[in-house]
Design goal:
The chain is of the alpha+beta class and 286 residues long. Helices cover 43% and strands 26% of the residues. The protein is built from nine helices and twelve strands. It has a domain of 164 residues. It is elongated, with a radius of gyration of 30 Å.
């Protein structure tokens, strides 16, 4: 039973994790991140778009800035995004499902505020839909935005960003006001079919040999290796328990037999069969 539970738990967690990453990453999505000594730009996004079977390429745009909300100054990650990118980051199929309060609209002048920005560590809410906040850019400029919505709390950031500590603004607005240089943190590449994922992955590796290419299959391969090791470990522990219990049962039975030899002899003498005595030994503990 212990061995079955151990393997069952490992398989259950594997299925849950796999389904989560399939929902968040998507089976037709490839991520491209800059390498240690390289960088990606908006020009690279257009180059990726020219690869066969690529239907869309979305840049990952972010910077850290000071934000004044109702007299409270916080440090937030400003992310220039599209609605599709936010849905993928939160693992939802509709932007409304990622909204705690407000309207699921991403347009110039409006901002979607992450949960940890809208609420302090004590649970006090400092940002509300319709409220005005001031964002100070890394260059020192002050920009005024209206809070369009408060985001749900997210358990994980799948592209190296924490959505709870982020403020989402329109992608084009970000490029014009925060990063005119066009340098991006990564590129989300959408493929027309999961069957063409490997082709697009190989093309990206050829075009950007210094950068990192990540897709769902490579990610799941690493996850499956981890869970395989975990299952083997749990099975090993359960196997040791099984051996110890087996030895204990054997030892108990042998002691019982040795101590009751005369009793068994009398039972055989009065007519008990050879099968009846072991059966009685098994039933007695119950």
């Amino acid at each position: 039973m212990a061995l079955g539970l151990a393997i069952g738990m490992g398989q259950g967690y594997k299925v849950l994790t796999t389904s989560f990453f399939e929902r968040v990453f998507g089976t037709n999505t490839v991520f491209l991140f800059p390498g240690q000594n390289s960088q990606l730009t908006i020009t690279d996004v257009y180059e990726v778009m020219d690869i066969p079977h690529v239907t869309n390429a979305i840049p990952i745009l972010s910077t850290v800035a000071k934000v004044d909300i109702n007299g409270h100054e916080v440090t937030a990650t400003i992310i220039g995004a599209t609605e599709q990118e936010i849905m993928q980051l939160y693992g939802v199929t509709s932007l409304s499902n990622a909204i705690l309060a407000g309207a699921p609209v991403l347009s110039p002048g409006l901002a979607l505020v992450g949960y940890d920005i809208a609420f302090t560590s004590t649970g006090q809410q400092i940002a509300y839909p319709g409220q005005v906040m001031v964002i100070t850019t890394p260059g020192g400029s002050e920009l005024t935005y209206t809070v369009g919505a408060i985001m749900q709390q997210s358990g994980i950031g799948v592209i190296g960003l924490n959505p709870n500590n982020a403020i989402f603004i329109d992608e084009n607005t970000f490029l014009s006001q925060f990063d005119p240089s066009g340098i991006v943190d990564g590129i989300i590449v959408y493929v027309d079919s999961p069957s063409n994922i490997n082709y697009v992955t190989n093309e990206l590796k050829a075009l950007f040999p210094m950068d990192q290419v990540l897709n769902l299959s490579t990610l799941l391969s690493s996850i499956n290796q981890f869970f395989t090791v975990l299952e083997l470990f749990l099975a090993f522990i359960a196997g040791i328990s099984f051996v110890i219990i087996g030895i204990w049962m054997f030892d108990t039975m042998m002691i019982n037999v040795i101590q009751r030899t005369r009793e068994f002899g009398i039972m055989r003498a009065v007519g008990f069969s050879g099968r009846s005595i072991p059966l009685l030994l098994i039933i007695e503990p119950r």
